Amino acid sequence: MKRAGLSLAVAGMAATIAVGAALWPHARDAFAILAAQDEPSELADLGINSVLRNNPALVAENIEAALAAGDADLAGSFTELARDKNIAISEELSTRVNDAVTDANSSSHFAKRFAVGLVTGNAEDVASLSGTVAGDLFVFGDIRDVVRESKHLAMGEDTDHLVLGLATVGLAVTAATYVSVGGALPVRAGLTMVKDARKVGRLGEGLMLWAGRSAREVVDGPMLQKAVASGSVLRPGATVNAIKAAFRAEKAGALVRLAKDVGRIGEKAGTRGALDTLRIAEGPKDIARAARLAESKGGQTRAILKLLGRGALLLAAGAFNLSLWVFSALLALFGFLSSIKAITERATMAYLRRKKARRQREQTAAAALLPGPALAGAATCG
Fold it and tell me: Which of the four pLDDT bands, split at 50, 70 and 90, describes residue 75?
């Protein structure tokens, strides 16, 4: 029975070792993710390492897909990621990426996209963003958007309050840009990118709802309608002065911070990187985390967002589930230590019992060798 108890403890230790070995990889990854949850760069590295460990060919596949879609910027981003992770890509594929990037950055292509951005106000790359920013810096783009949306508002038609608010804030930021000799240009570019993302339907639903609420607070609707009624795109100076009266500067802080973070992403990860972020973000906190990621990863940011989505910005799995893996591993460790304790106690007790039994046998044997009382008395009489 006693030997059965020791065997049971040994079996328990073996079972906890097996369970711990199965849980350890999950617990290790969960602990690392929990520790990195406030550091977007470290969190993204853990996610990318996991994805590429399971499928190293994923980088080359995405480069091919990006080239087929005519997205040289994304192909270049994956090339940077491959270089950083020491993933080999063929020389032929690398050459094709370089040629595509060179062509996309050519003077003729840049001029064409700049003109498209200036005229339409839609940005999809650096060139077209330069055009939209140029239009907004000359207040043409913002006045055009304010006048259009305000007329919709005055006529009771569907009004894009977000575009209206962003354009109104943009007019004030443009003035600050001129005063600071370009110091506010990243904010100006950020506002333009958010506005363009909204126009082409590339703004995440959660972020769109938040920005829409913020934009409504920035604009005094009735006062803006009066300003637009007396203004015109052809008279920008008078229109801007009239619109300023409807602008609530004290309410614009949240949108300006958002635009600043978007501008930081655009500077480090490119225009398309910023637009990709706006598409997956659910709120300003996601944008702020993406700005930190872009500052750390630069050109790799688009590839990271492509592979991980919003998981690059926050925990892909719930913190509770990750904590459960860690807790389970700790339970297995506790079981292992308990089994060692039980084995040690049982082994010690068995040793002590054996030692005690041996001592008793030795004493019994020694007593049997001594002369009996009768013999001892006879020897005394003689």
Answer: very high
- Structure letter (DSSP) for residue 219: B
Helix, strand, or coil (residue 109): helix
Residue 114 near residue 105, CB atoms below 8 Å: no
Residue 129, SS3 per DSSP: helix
Residues 6+ positions from 246 with CB-CB distance below 8 Å? 168, 219, 220, 221, 223, 224, 227
User: DSSP for 63-123?
Assistant: HHHHHHTT-HHHHHHHHHHHHHTT----HHHHHHHHHHHHHHTSHHHHHHHHHHHHHH---
> What pLDDT, in 10s, does the model give residues 231-284?
554 455 565 666 666 667 677 788 888 888 988 998 898 888 888 898 888 889
Q: What is the pTM of this model?
A: 0.64
Sign for the CA dihedral angle at 241, 247, 252, 256 comes to: negative
Closest by CA to 194, choosing from 111, 245, 265, 144, is: 265
Instruction: Provide the terminal-to-terminal Cα distance of the chain, rounded to the nearest Å.
Output: 55
Token code pair at residue 373: 């009382």
Which residues share a beta bridge with 247?
Answer: 219
Give the CB-side neighbour count of residue 167, counting CA atoms within 13 A.
Answer: 28
307 pLDDT more than 80: yes
How far is C-alpha 7 from the chain's CA centre? 49
**Per-residue model confidence as pLDDT tens digits over 132-186:** 656 665 566 777 777 777 777 667 677 777 787 777 777 666 655 544 444 556 6
Task: Using CB atoms within 10 Å of the CB of residue 272, give its burial: 0 to 12 exposed, 13 to 18 middle, 19+ buried.
Answer: buried
Distances (CA, A) of 169 to 76, 186, 194, 251: 34, 14, 12, 10
